[in-house]
Amino acid sequence: MQKNKIGIFLPYAENYDSHYGGAIARWCHETLSRNLDKYHFSVYSASGDKGYPEGYKTNIYGKYISFIKNKERKYARNLLWAKIFYQIKRFTCRDSFLLFSLFNEIKKNDIVIIHNRPKLVSFLRRLGFDKKIFLHLHNSHLANLAINEINDTIYHSDKIFYCSDFLKTEVEDKLNKNNNKNIVIYNGCKNISDSNFFEPREKVILFSGRFIDDKGILELIDGFNLLKGSYELHLAGGVSSGIDNATSPYYEKIKNKIKVNDKIKNIGYLDHDLLLKKMRESEIFIMPSKWKEPFGMVALEAYLSGCKVIASKNGGAKEFLLLDAVYCDCEPKSIFKAIVKSIDIKNYVPSNDMGYFSWDNIAEKFSNELDDD
Prior knowledge:
Helices cover about 40% and strands about 20% of the residues. The chain has helices spanning about 25-30, 60-75, 80-90, 95-100, 105, 120-125, 145-155, 165-175, 215-225, 250-260, 270-280, 295-305, 320, 330-345, 360-370, and strands at about 5-10, 40-45, 55, 110-115, 130-135, 160, 180-185, 200-210, 230-240, 265-270, 280-285, 310, 325-330. Helix 2 (about 60-75) runs antiparallel to helix 3, helix 6 crosses helix 7 and helix 9 (about 215-225) crosses helix 14. The longest helix is centred in the N-terminal third of the chain and has 15 residues, at about 60-75. The protein is globular, with a radius of gyration of 21 Å. The mean pLDDT is about 90.
């Protein structure tokens, strides 16, 4: 029997790669790789090299975008060249241009899944695509549109996947109505044995993420500076995914704050397996975001690695952390109190059955939605 052809369109900024790619690329890899026997996948992405093997495709324009992104990364610390390549990217790299340039390939699919770019749904319809279109949202991009644009996107979509009930509710509350096209498919996590929960852990409070204001890193540092004792704060990540050499005014503020406390370590960007190892070694993981994290895959991974987790009160993380986390506001005193409370928790073991969030289960739910047409 011929397999259904499924096209996956990624935003041009999302490399289909375990190193330079983010949560969207990982979600696709983990779910697609478990369903290769059932479907023929084509992943359309502006990546230079295919870090993941599931049917990756690009074209000349995609390679051009990849070239510009690579140059921007290479010269990230040269403020002049970084600004030049940023401006080139800003004016010449577009998701709509990439989709248009790939349309002759994309139209061969039975279903097209567009990740995180709601306006492309209507654009693809205007290009003449008359088969199934699914929209998969990992952020609040749909809820942030005007109501007429939201309705237009819903009208032209056959299904809309959300990575959390929080994201789904944002849209439904704005429209003041539910929609049977709206479906929650959570992010997942690599299966991690619970055998390490009772092993000694380093007195480390671990943060992992992009070094941007939304992540609340400056507030985290100020909160940690109120703590007395032997704990260290380790910051994993960088200004951009996959690189350590980029800088920004916000990153410079972080570096200046770190200088006054030798218990704060910038450990740089860690590949995924190394990050999981670091989580299994650390006692506490913290995600004190200013913005409402739609899900927080990194917090799920830390949770299943046996870390005590501190998370911001708002967003989707409560859907899997439930009562097992310590919650805080993105404010130094609140973060400090959450750290103290976490340190006081002894013999910590997650109380929830987290098998629901295994990639095997998430991939099966994804497959069920593809079959239900």
